[in-house]
Give the backbone structure.
Amino acid sequence: MKLLEERILAEGMAENEDVLKVDGFLNHQVDPVLMEEIAKDFALHFKSQGITKIVTIESSGIAPALLTAKEMGIPLIIMKKQPSRVLYNDLFQTVVASFTKETSYELTMSKKFLTDEDHVLIIDDFLAYGESAAGAIRLVRMSGATVAGVGILIEKVFQAGRDKVKENGVPVYSQVKIKKLSGGKIEIEE
Ligand code: 5GP
């Protein structure tokens, strides 16, 4: 997606060889006009697939996922991250290793909002090693719903996230693919 690519090149910061910072328009300050264009692109890509609901993980996926839900005329469900290991009867829960691999968290979703009649699109900001996306797929499937695909704004292709999602039999669509981060330079895959 050209617009997002241009924005990453203009304002993104390669913090090191692993992490891209996009605080100026996505992760801290959010550009609503860019989010609207991102939403239109997702809606176009995933149209005619019978998608009934969008799911995202708090918090950075919420802005693009909400606008995509509006564009597609369907509800958005926000999965929550919780540190506790307490079991709740009214929640689906799964443990997810975080991007840094140094910690893990409990991803939860109420049992109220998805049924086996739902066909779900998962949207998240970044795809790195795919642990978050795989966790979201597990939670959706616990409800009996099916997963149509994973929509990602920024995929870092040098980390193995796409393979992890594909192992789960789910297609990935990413709007921008980052080939490499090195010496403060951001290389985009065409
Ligand atoms: P994964 O589970 O695919 O390893 O990591 C995905 C999650 O980690 C994303 O939801 C995002 O919050 C965070 N993340 C991964 N890589 C980056 C990155 O380069 N920059 C930022 N800002 N967040 C990232």
Observations:
- The mean pLDDT is 96.
- The CA atoms of residues 2 and 176 lie 8 Å apart.
